[in-house]
Automatic annotation (TrEMBL):
Classification via PANTHER family: L-2-HYDROXYGLUTARATE DEHYDROGENASE, MITOCHONDRIAL
Alphabetized GO MF terms: (S)-2-hydroxyglutarate dehydrogenase activity
Keywords per UniProt: FAD, Flavoprotein, Oxidoreductase
InterPro entries membership: FAD/NAD-bd_sf (IPR036188)
UniProt protein name: FAD dependent oxidoreductase domain-containing protein
Required cofactor(s): FAD
Entry-linked Gene3D superfamilies: D-Amino Acid Oxidase, subunit A, domain 2, FAD/NAD(P)-binding domain
Organism expressing this protein natively: Halocaridina rubra (Hawaiian red shrimp)
Organism superkingdom: Eukaryota
Keyword Cytoplasm: no
Protein's UniProt keywords contain Oxidoreductase: yes
Amino acid sequence: MASYFDIDFKELWKAITYRGFQKLALQYVGFGLKEVLRSFFPRLQVSTLQQYVPEITASDIQRGPSGVRAQAMNIDGSLEDDFVFHRETQCELGCKILHCRNAPSPGATSSLAIAKMIADKCHVEFNLS
């Protein structure tokens, strides 16, 4: 299990020097600090959890692994909520390449809908009949 001190400093430096991250962090500094405190002191989460499960107590809380969700961020600090498409324009393959970035892991529930959206986007981008 990873610990708080399992840090890739090169990756951390790249993140904190990115202008978009700096803008986002400044905008949500209070929220971010509360989340850090809650991660170090899980008992601080109880009142928030009680909004959803009133019976929950500190003894019900157990430390577990943290999750990481990759999120595309723009230079202005705004987050991309959905798919970002980028058409390749300089290539030797006739430029029929469409990149899909920031694709959330949908599981089986929406994979067909996502495939249709990508197919529709290809029809528009590449003038397919």
